[in-house]
Amino acid sequence: MTARRGGRTVLDGVDLVVPGGTTLAVVGRSGAGKSLLASLAGRLADPDAGEVLLDGVPLRELPHDGLRRAVGYAFARPALLGDTVEQAIGLGLASPSPDRIREAARTALADDFVRRLPDGYDTAVADAPRSGGESQRLGLARAFAHGGRLLILDDALSSLDTVTERHITDALLGDGPAGTRLLVAHRSATAACADAVAWLDAGRVRAVGRHEELWRLAEYRAVFGEGAEPAPAGAGSGAEA
Description:
Elements: E1 3-5, E2 8-11, E3 17-18, E4 23-27, H1 34-41, E5 53-54, E6 57-58, H2 64-70, E7 71-75, H3 85-89, H4 98-107, H5 111-115, H6 132-146, E8 150-154, H7 162-173, E9 180-184, H8 188-192, E10 196-201, E11 204-209, H9 211-214, H10 218-223, E12 239-240
Parallel strand pairs: 4-9, 4-10, 7-8, 8-9
Antiparallel strand pairs: 1-2, 3-12, 5-6, 5-12, 10-11
Helix pairs in contact: 4-6
């Protein structure tokens, strides 16, 4: 699979298979193509050559509504739409139940601060003061409430402190939403929790393997910056690109 942007080849010859029900962390230096790969995986963008499959079906062949039901997203800077916080978390659900929304918020560690808002879940989104990390947790809650066969987190944990990130990662890969997960990761501890890591380097797949195996390579360790420490590996339908 190849993808170009602005006349430049950003992804070149990428060939990845994510077994159903597993978590793939995507790591690489800035500009390696991580976010574009995440966009292609859920068809927010199309490749210039090659194709992306979900459970063996090309994404181009899936109807728009079916694709949106199958794929959930969380972003570094989520756009929170809806009149209230509850509506923002339940966006896209045909019949969002309060129980489902609150359970998703608890998984994203958002329930406590939402309850402290002036009107709790009924607080207007525009009137809900929140930090960058709290916005990310609301975006994660929306993704968890959505469910779906494929969950894509594009740098969606970047504004969280390390303790909160670890709690959410444990919930996500343990008793959290089921399905396949594609996780753009910038911290070594997050990559360590995935079933496998795809290391992107200048738009190509440099290697795929377990984090603890790749950690033996100095160039891989350098992706996470000075002082990065390895973390114990955690627990983790199929997607192909």
